Amino acid sequence: MAAVIPNDVYFNTIAELTARLKAKEFKSEDLSRAFAERLVQLGPRYNALALPLPLDARRKGKAIDQDIKLDRWRSPLQGIPYGAKDLLSYKGHLTAWGAKPYAAQVFDYSATVIDKLDAAGAVLTGKLAMVELAGGGGYRFASASATGPGLNPWDTSRWSGGSSSGSAAAVAAGLVTFALGSETSGSIVTPASYCGVTALRPTYGLVSRHGAMALSWTLDKIGPLARSVEDCGRILQVIAGSDGKDPGSAGTSFYYTPQYARPLKELKVGYAAVDFTDRAEESARAAFQAALAAIRETGVTLVETKLPSFPYGPILSTILAAEQASSFEPLITSGRVDELADAAQIAGLKASLELPAKDYLKAIRLRRLIQEEFRKLFTQVDVLLAPGRSGPASKLDQPLDRGGFQPPSGTPVGLQGIVQAGNLAGLPALVLPCGFADNMPVALQVVGAPFSENLLLAIGREFQARTDWHKRRPPEIG
Fold first, then answer.
1. Is 187 one of the catalytic residues?
2. How far apart are alpha carbons 378 and 56 in whole angstroms?
3. Amino acid 478: pLDDT
4. Which helix (H) or strand (E) holds 221?
5. Known catalytic membership, residue 163
6. The sheet that has 268-271: what strands, in order across it?
7. How would DSSP label each residue in 265-294?
8. DSSP string over 134-157
9. Do 400 and 194 form a contact (C-beta atoms < 8 A)?
10. Do residues 10 and 38 touch, judged by C-beta distance below 8 A?
11. Which letter, b or e, does each residue of 238-247 get, where b requires 16 or more Cβ atoms within 10 Å of its Cβ?
């Protein structure tokens, strides 16, 4: 007879679940079954589920029970249920990339990150919904997905964010312990900020993208969305590393070593005060001010900082347009692009085929200058700090091309453009839930130099030791 899994388990961290498995409070098979059933039951409530995998999950859980019986522990992720964004291939199963034209697509191999998690004993319970083609071409409405608009567990009249919409919603609602998402220009930072979950966008090349849909091969990154900073560190240690199957692989591993972190009192944190006042939505300012105070209390030195002056948005858009045109040329030229859900996205993909090569090459050269300027900036400060987004999640019916909140004319720019700049320079970013506005989560992002993940995690760990925003649950969820 299957064990009854207590409700609090669905919001446990990785360490808490591991302790309960080691104490034999329940079997791994029962835990896997319970999470898989919960994902099937509640995933559609948030349009978060792309493909349920209950049989695979139970089979994996049963195998892990044999290891536990022998007291064989392969990794900190052993027996931990998770979900993967549906742009990651899973051998022999549908991988639709959130888009109708690929609804029947099946690969005969799994993405490297899924293979690594499988070897570590993590339990894949389902594929999670996403914006179609990870937003390639640009989209105007949250409904740009074959599974419908991502609904935020904190308020289903609001968006869960794109393009890793299902990943963020599933973690926030306790449908998985952690999830894999991807980012090209904000697709981890935005949904994590909107849904109130901790997340990590790794340095470009640190995590293999073999088996992931290619939107922009010089910008795409895969990272975790989870319950806490500690969880993100444990997950990154498993999924990072060299992979000859990914031409963009940095050829380096990652070991989560918080015990060797620099004392926070030695750190300089670059920020712009205006980001937490006039450039933030009015309802979010109190939360951001309190979060900034909590960061200051960790002992770091806050330093007013400016980003290097570049048109980050147009540069990123040019690179993305050229590379997505190459990736999706067969879809566009075949006419099947017209099957996508969002008219703006269809038009954007078609237009990308007309981008002149000289514009792409110029953008590539400018990106190299951006990377050099950030190298110089990180000799003056250790990390950069800004809101994840300027306010809470947008309403579902709000057109996304309206640009959201606009500060008064003449307001200093602050660190505006940090998401585009960070992606262009390949920088890691940690998302930290930091409070509420209009009863919705808001978050900070901490951005560092390439391969500074341990430093970001050390700052985030201390912040979460002083606050409990990452432990909050959406209302009316068991």
1. yes
2. 45
3. 57
4. strand 221-226
5. yes
6. 49-52, 123-128, 81-85, 178-183, 221-226, 198-201, 429-437, 440-448, 383-387, 268-271, 301-304
7. GG-EEEE-GGGGTTTS-GGGHHHHHHHHHH
8. GGTT--SSTT-STT-PPEETTEEE
9. no
10. yes
11. bbbbebeebe
**Residue 240 forms beta bridges with which residues?**
207
Predicted local confidence at residue 320, as pLDDT:
98
| Catalytic choice (187, 228, 352, 452) | 187
From 28, 32, 60, 85, the catalytic residue: 85
Query: What pLDDT is stored for residue 402 in this prediction?
Result: 75
Tell me what pLDDT residue 476 has.
76
Q: What SS3 string covers 346-392? A: HHHHHHHCCCCHHHHHHHHHHHHHHHHHHHHHCCCCCEEEEECCCCC
Query: What is the number of other CB atoms lying within 10 angstroms of the CB of residue 260?
Result: 8
Residues paired with residue 225 on neighbouring β-strands, in sequence order? 179, 199
Mutual angle of helices 14-22 and 229-239, in 10-degree steps: 80
312-327 and 357-377 helices, crossing angle to 10°: 130
Q: Which of 89, 110, 143, 163 is catalytic?
A: 163
- How confident is the model at residue 477, as a pLDDT? 72
Q: What are the residue ranges in the chain where pLDDT is below 50?
A: none
| Cα separation, 470 vs 232, whole angstroms | 12
For the chain, the residue count is: 478
